[in-house]
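FORM 7B - TANDEM STRUCTURE REPORT

SECTION 1: FIRST PROTEIN
SEQUENCE AND TOKENS:
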Amino acid sequence: MSTVSIDHIAMPTANAERLIEFYKRIGFTINDEDEWRAGRANAFSIQVGNSKINVHPEGYTASLRGPTAVPGCGDICFVWDGTADECKAMLEEAGVEIISGPGPRRGALKRREAVSLYARDPDENLLEWMIYQ
């Protein structure tokens, strides 16, 4: 037996509304948004393929979380299913500033060659889109 994938990661946000709007604008689905807005859930998540990012909104408290987690502590790499030009166009159309790339990278998927682009979300989390060649 071994660990085979990541189910979810978690990150705090300083402004849940702003974060939801940003991730929706770049094509992600927000899980439990309606329940969170109605006060029936204390958090929501961003769906990423078969994994998710649990978001801890302002005022969220839980004993099982990193003791120094603060908004902007995330560094997340997504896999883009398309070309670097298509990823760049999507980010630009969404008004997202690309801070680096595309540039060569070595990805995790069987250590294949790739290129990637970097941006930041509203909390200043570092976001990377890996594009496999």
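SECTION 2: SECOND PROTEIN
SEQUENCE AND TOKENS:
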Amino acid sequence: MDLTKTLYYGAVVIGVLIAVGVVVSVVSAILSLLRLLLVAALLIGVVYAAYRVRSWLSGDDDGNDGHSVTDRIGNFGSSTASESRSTGSSPGGRDRLRRQYVEGEIDEAEFERRIEREFEAEDLDDIERELERER
């Protein structure tokens, strides 16, 4: 065999080895990306499942405890906030009452009595806030 053929075959073998190395690297990168996406999807699934379990255990279908975020943030730490939450005087409380009425859990008289109590509690909260502002 002469030297040119040997150099030619040597160059072909090196080229093939480089091509195989590139293909292996690309496949490895794709598999790593897929593994990362799978781990992220599993993590999101676990977090969502924990959220749903918490919602289920608290007895609330939508994961909301009946109070809006602004109600929790806006009235944080005030005595009227805890009173309004205990009486349920919030838009979320009224929505919960409507849902109970529509689903037949409470009758019309009970619904009207509770709604009236909601509005009375809301009026009392407004009066207490006005008195606190005046002090």
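SECTION 3: OBSERVATIONS ON SECOND PROTEIN
The radius of gyration is 33 Å.
Residues 3-58 form the longest helix (56 residues).

SECTION 4: SIGNATURE
Preparer initials: ____
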